[in-house]
Amino acid sequence: MIILEGLTKSFGAHRVLDGVTLDVPDGQNTVIIGGSGVGKSVTLKCIMGLIEPDEGRVRVDGEVVQELSRDELTELRGRIGYVFQFAALFDSMTVAENIALGLARRGYDRAAIADRVEESLAVVELSGTEDKYPAELSGGMRKRVGIARAVALKPRYILYDEPTTGLDPITSAVMDQLMVRTRDLGVTGLVVTHDMRSAFCVGDRIAMLHEGRIRQVGTRAEIQATVDPVVRQFIEGRP
Amino acid sequence: MASRVHARDGFVAHVGRTTLETARALADVRTWSPLLVAQMRRLGVDSVPIALFIAVFTGIVLSLLSSYIFTGAVPFYFVGALVGKTVMMELGPVLTGMALAGRVGASIAAELGTMKVTEQVDALETLAYNPRAYLVVPRVLAATLMFPVITAFAMAVGVTSGWITSVNLLDLSTPEFFKGLRLFYRFKDIWFGLVKSASFGAAVALMGCVRGLDAKSGAEGVGQSTTRAVVLGCEAILVLDAFWALVLL
Ligand SMILES: Nc1ncnc2c1ncn2[C@@H]1O[C@H](COP(=O)(O)OP(=O)(O)OP(=O)(O)O)[C@@H](O)[C@H]1O
Ligand SMILES: [Mg+2]
């Protein structure tokens, strides 16, 4: 279980997070929706320990991320997969090497790594791209390699930062299916998106981040039936 | 002014912290050892031509210069002594170091800076790698090991070019040149130069890494880090040069 407790974060005078509190229950996909620049990516990075919040803390399996030593943090990160908004592939490595890197760290042998690479590329429908370099791929393909890189590790938790933006509707539906299937395998997902179709498809629970705080959190049905004008406006996409 | 001095203090502390963390990351042998050889090879290929080019011209200039200084004052074979001593103890290590600060420091800063701003460094962290062990240690170690190798080549080439110049352009015979070369030669001259160059390698690579890893986003940010890495690398070389002269001579 991941628990965010009162996270605040400012960059200079700009207060991005202003007390974000949220539970991410095990075995479900929790979706965070919210406008551009409200701090969704910053929130995910706080969970992974990539950004240090000014106040508040994140608990993962009872451990407080902000209080861990370097080694403990490394160990914790072994349980979490992270899909970057802009893929963040290693551009000096091939697709296969990108996916293999995290697996090698976990001590798999060569054959197991090759199998896992092939399997996870098949899942994101990119079989045959093993030897390509990221620069040779389209933006959407890169993003899917990023997803494959996280899924290949079979972690307990996966944090997806906008997994479907920039994908065509069909591929994006495939990614939605992938996230649902991954959840069915027992992986807890935290998905950041502003694609409402995707949010309603994969989200067991949906939370809206607005002005640095969680405006509303509830089940899919609760959010679909919300009376909060801010949330309504967002999910209906009214100007 | 006060704030600049303060920023400078902050930077020194920052470099100190990075050095410590890098030293700690040395324990993670499993991560950096497979990457070391590739870094050494790349550094060598990148640097040998420029280092040798500089050494050739240093040798030529030194022999001409010393003949100008010594004519009528001291025995002419002192040319050999001056060329040898200066190339081995000072100009070989320092000029090679400066040239490599440009090439190696800049390429490390640009590479790590790009990785930083495209979140590849964060991605390494999420895959449970320590970027200090994966990126910094192999580069700093490779530079520490390779700078002396390249400097040794530069010393040999510098002395050789000084000798060829003396024999062809000055009225000096080969035996006279080598008589001068041997006259004041001590084994310390060579290891002093090589120890210095190892420390220059460590400093140049470390500055490249530190600047690269704090690159601010955008192509401009990476450009700035690259320039700063080169300037800092050269400054570090000069400071270390004085330090070793104080400590070892
Ligand atoms: N490293 C940083 N330095 C300075 N400001 C930052 C940094 N990271 C994020 N910000 C600021 O924090 C705010 C939130 O950024 P964030 O990337 O979390 O937005 P987001 O909700 O993910 O938006 P989007 O949907 O467009 O990705 C932005 O205003 C951004 O400028
Ligand atoms: Mg974002």
Structure description:
The complex is a heterodimer of chains A (239) and B (249). Chain A has 239 residues and is an alpha/beta fold. Helices cover 38% and strands 26% of the residues of chain A. Chain A has one domain: P-loop containing nucleotide triphosphate hydrolases (Rossmann fold, 3-Layer(aba) Sandwich), CATH 3.40.50.300. Chain A contains nine helices and ten strands. The longest helix of chain A has 16 residues. The mean pLDDT of chain A is 95. Chain B is an all-alpha fold and 249 residues long. Chain B has one domain. Chain B has eight helices and no strands. Chain B is elongated, with a radius of gyration of 21 Å. The chains are: A alpha/beta (239), B mainly alpha (249). At the A-B interface, helix 2, strand 6 and helix 3 of A face helix 4 of B. The site of magnesium ion has 4 residues of chain A, from helix 1. Magnesium ion (MG) binds next to helix 1 of chain A.
Considering the chains and any ligands shown, give keywords for the structure.
heterodimer, A: 239 residues, alpha/beta, Rossmann fold, B: 249 residues, mainly alpha, elongated, binds adenosine-5'-triphosphate, binds magnesium ion
In short:
The complex is a heterodimer of chains A (239) and B (249). Chain A has 239 residues and is an alpha/beta fold. Chain A has helices at 40-48, 70-77, 95-105, 110-123, 139-151, 169-184, 196-202, 220-224, 229-236; strands spanning 2-11, 14-24, 29-33, 55-60, 63-64, 80-83, 157-161, 188-192, 205-210, 213-219.
Percent of residues in helices of chain A comes to 25-40%
CATH architecture identity of chain A: 3-Layer(aba) Sandwich
Number of domains of chain B: 1
Head-to-tail CA distance between termini of chain B: 36 Å
CATH fourth-tier homologous superfamily of chain A: P-loop containing nucleotide triphosphate hydrolases
Oligomer: heterodimer
Strand content of chain A: 25-35%
User: What structural class do you assign from the helix and strand content of chain A?
Assistant: alpha/beta
Globally, the shape of chain B reads elongated
Stated plainly, the CATH topology of chain A is called Rossmann fold
Give me the count of strands of chain A.
10
Question: Helical percent range of chain B?
Answer: over 70%
Ligands and ions found: adenosine-5'-triphosphate, magnesium ion
Strand composition percent of chain B: under 5%
